[in-house]
Amino acid sequence: MTTSTDAVTVRMPAVYRWILALGATALGVALGFLVKPITTWLVDLVGSAPGPLRLAANLPPIWAVLVLTVVGAVAGLWLAHQAQVESLEVTVRPEDVRLAQNGAVRHVARAAIGEVFLDRRDLVLLDRRTGELARNKASDLDRDEIATAFERLGYPWRGGADPHEHEFRQWADGAPDLPEEAHALLRARARARTDKQAGRVAELTDELRDAGVVVRDRDGAQQYRPMPER
């Protein structure tokens, strides 16, 4: 967590990236020493081994260790970079909240925020009508640091569980408590989830919010709750 006079930033701890980078490097070193017996074992077991393993096994032992150490180090640096890109970085300021994840950056104005909380692995921001402004995976952030960041700057922090949990229901197509418009959007969203179209899922989530329905994914199914009337 980084703190200044007017902002608090919470990001993935640097130690996680070091673990990935050093762990992959160590695996490269170990594979360098073991590549020849592993390749021999695979050939005896299934009659073949992957081409890169066979190439490494044919190198002099010292070169096999050096080459695979470098490969492990490069792979570790790439993994650490990807982890940082995919991890949420949240900056809380008096005027807004900045959410950066997967190369996308979003600002949510303080005046629009009615509630902030953690829902299992997700950081959730709601508006004053309980509509969902943002939901970001935050499983690799420190939960206490997130709470401290929002509480310090006076945001309406609601804790580590969704205060509207009891209002959610699992979606069943045609359920009488939703209009057909909402069911059509939920059907489209279910198809987009199946097809792994993350952008389309996000668009339909926003359309449902505009129609007065909050939706989330839970245990492989869509759950929803109607928002209060204006």
TrEMBL record:
Pfam family name, one: bPH_10
Domain YqeB PH: 9-158
Transmembrane stretches, start-end: 18-42, 62-80
Domain Cysteinyl-tRNA ligase anticodon binding, first and last residues per copy: 176-225
Keywords, in A-Z order: Membrane, Transmembrane, Transmembrane helix
Identification of the protein by name: DUF308 domain-containing protein
Organism: Amycolatopsis arida
